[in-house]
Amino acid sequence: MKIYYEDSMPYAAEFFADLGEAVVFSHKTIDAETIKDADVLLVRSTTKVNQELLHLATNLKFVGTATAGTDHVDIKYLASRGIPFFSAGGCNAVAVAEYVLSTLFVMADKLDWQVADKTIGIIGAGHVGTALSKHLSALGINYKLCDPPLQDNGDSRTFVSMQEIMQCDVITLHVPWVKDGVYKTENMFDKAQLAQLSDGQVLINACRGEVLNNQAALELFKEGHRFQLVLDVWENEPDINLELMPFTALATAHIAGHTIEGKARGTEMLYLDLCQQLNIQPNKELTDYLPIAAPSDIALESTEPFWQGIRNIVLDVYNIADDDRQFKAQVDGGEQFRYIRKHYPIRREFSAIKVNAGNFVNSKAIYDLGFL
Ligand SMILES: NC(=O)c1ccc[n+]([C@@H]2O[C@H](COP(=O)([O-])OP(=O)(O)OC[C@H]3O[C@@H](n4cnc5c(N)ncnc54)[C@H](O)[C@@H]3O)[C@@H](O)[C@H]2O)c1
Ligand SMILES: O=C(O)[C@H](O)[C@H](O)COP(=O)(O)O
């Protein structure tokens, strides 16, 4: 069995070696000819999976993406050929939640406000939105959820309307890129929607670039609007609108989900799916491969005020301001955008970090955030 996997999938060689002949490819060079003998195709979001790529692959019986988003895959085409498709929903939800938490503390420093005083509006309450809401609950930070598909489907949580979300101090987007239909998300933040944001209000996009009209944001900034825009994802990646960059409060290269755990979990999820499809008992797991985190210990002083301690510990593990600085200094076009993503340094999740909370005022919150 020939298993083709994208080179950005951590531990794919280890997970898939025993299941067949595992062959690595780069999204930059993959084409129909390269994978024409594939039985299994495993990708991340950088490989477009469609008829053009797959029309010669007549043996194909499994396609998987080790990502939450599936907009790079023509799922209808796969269904028309009866090829089972798998994705890794939830693999990086915690990574994105931690990215947003870091953003909140960095924005609080920048704008001189307290995270504790703010209400966070979460649009999209799936894996990421839920992981974020749990982190906010752990810290007692107010939040509101907006997710009409889940609400219409009877999800028992409390949801608010888009109008109510627009009143939140911080709004963070965690929806899939949906191009049409009742729950369309493409261009959800168009010029009219963006224009409703007040100066100082924070808008974070860490889902898909096409949900927020980048050109419209640029025009509004040029017209004098001063909402605080935090972008991890961009329209038309990797050829992003560089003119928008100086107007962003924080900008990163689509790396919100790029913890080692988040990426590797995606690989593991596809391994488990493939084992199930092949009716094989899985005999490997992520913990066989994950490196020991460094630093592995953080100590909290018992005298440290609660919010100061939480801020410091969150930013010790991941400080988005560092990524923002490097990204803005380095990116000059599509090739560089790709390069930065590909060479993104290993980031760890809170769950890999041991904390000695000692007599810190509310150590439960630390462990509820996932720290060991
Ligand atoms: N930046 C990154 O690195 C990164 C990482 C993970 C996921 N993502 C993106 O974020 C998206 C969300 O990830 P997830 O794992 O939570 O997916 P998910 O499918 O678990 O959740 C998405 C939620 O959005 C809701 N939704 C759909 N249409 C909506 C609408 N019109 N209004 C409000 N809510 C709507 C859905 O009902 C669902 O609950 C992914 O599709 C992916 O594109 C980006
Ligand atoms: O959808 C996802 O899971 C994320 O956007 C993911 O981080 C994309 O990462 P990539 O596959 O482009 O490395």
TrEMBL record:
Does Cytoplasm count among this protein's keywords?
yes
- Binding residue positions for substrate: 45, 67
UniProt EC number: 1.1.1.290
Q: Which cellular compartments is it found in?
A: Cytoplasm
Keyword line: Cytoplasm, NAD, Oxidoreductase, Pyridoxine biosynthesis
Q: What is its main location?
A: cytoplasm
The protein in question is named: Erythronate-4-phosphate dehydrogenase
Can you state which reaction this protein catalyses?
Answer: 4-phospho-D-erythronate + NAD(+) = (R)-3-hydroxy-2-oxo-4-phosphooxybutanoate + NADH + H(+)
Give the organism the record lists: Paraglaciecola aquimarina
Enumerate the InterPro entries for this protein: D-isomer_DH_NAD-bd (IPR006140), Erythronate-4-P_DHase (IPR020921), Erythronate-4-P_DHase_dimer (IPR024531), NAD(P)-bd_dom_sf (IPR036291), PdxB_dimer_sf (IPR038251)
- Known pathway: Cofactor biosynthesis; pyridoxine 5'-phosphate biosynthesis; pyridoxine 5'-phosphate from D-erythrose 4-phosphate: step 2/5
Q: Which positions does UniProt annotate for NAD(+) binding? A: 147, 232, 257
